[in-house]
Input
Amino acid sequence: MILHEFLSFELLRVIWWLLLGVLLIGFALTDGFDLGVGALLPFVGRTDTERRVAINTVGPVWEGNQVWFILGGGAIFAAWPPLYAVSFSGFYLAMFAVLAALILRPVAFKYRSKRDGATWRNGWDWALFVGGAVPALIFGVAVGNVLQGVPFHLTEDMMPMYDGSFWWKFIALLNPFALLAGVVSLSMLMMHGAAWLTLKSSGPVQERARRIGTWAGLVAIGGYALAGLWLAVGIDGYAIVGTVVTDGPSNPLYSQVERTASWLAAYGVRPWIVIAPVLGFLGMALATLGLRAGREVSTLLFSKLGIFGVISSVGLTMFPFILPSSKMPDASLTVWDSSSSHLTLFVMLVATLIFMPLILAYTAWVYKVLWGKVTEADVSEQSDSVY
Output
């Protein structure tokens, strides 16, 4: 009870904003290379054996890595209910496409080796490509739309409403800036997948992964720079007008919000956040150079650093906004007015402090046990294995 009183509502809101970022970044750092390997699969493996090498580098770990995505969705549902309601309804078709692709992925893992036919296995390999590339692209598209503001408003009874027809809402998501953000996301995760294949494979698979990953890294760096420039000169940001009440009621209409000149004005208010994009550029650049030079462990670590910086830069630039509204700025969801209750956030934090270390310890143990390269000899000797 003393701890509950010590952790103020304002502090718990910030803690859960940080934890949500940790979960999303954890998903990108772990399952991100799984998605990247899937997107690279048809191109790094030209024979069935080569593709089996690539698949077996992620086969034992992809299910555990996907837990971060489930935890992130659960955290949004429990800690930020309005965000869950508004985003999952507004991005319904996009979320459906992501879930369909993520469902297709385990089916492809399980069924591709059930038959020996080349047509059968090639079909499932392209299914793995879809299962990797589509989520990587759409996650970026979603972030691009969030930065522009989502076209929703709240009715008198606080019901979120979106403009446009059911299908038009999906088409409107595919605007130029959002597609650019999608390209950044896809190329960044392909670079990450290539770094993983460089570490875990050898021979032709490793060489092709290095070559393709180098180009993917260059695209990610260029796209990230272009997106930053676009944000600076072409997209309005948001700001809370007047006194900011950080421990007030969770009512999106509680604060007055206006469009501002640029999201990048945040760097004038909080100059220290520039460390995030710097880490993003630095990590991706060093990972790209590492791929080109053939380095392994450091390349994967630098790739993780780049992803951390890129995702962090979005969250830090937008803070305290989580989901701004382009149609009704006052309805924008922020850290201060869209969370669950004080008690709910506290109980969730206690549970997180208990179970998160266990998850991290188990994950570290799994990677330690599975350390080492997957070779063509390994998969040839295990011709009857699942993958």
Q: What stands out?
A: Residues 140 and 181 are 5 Å apart (CA to CA).
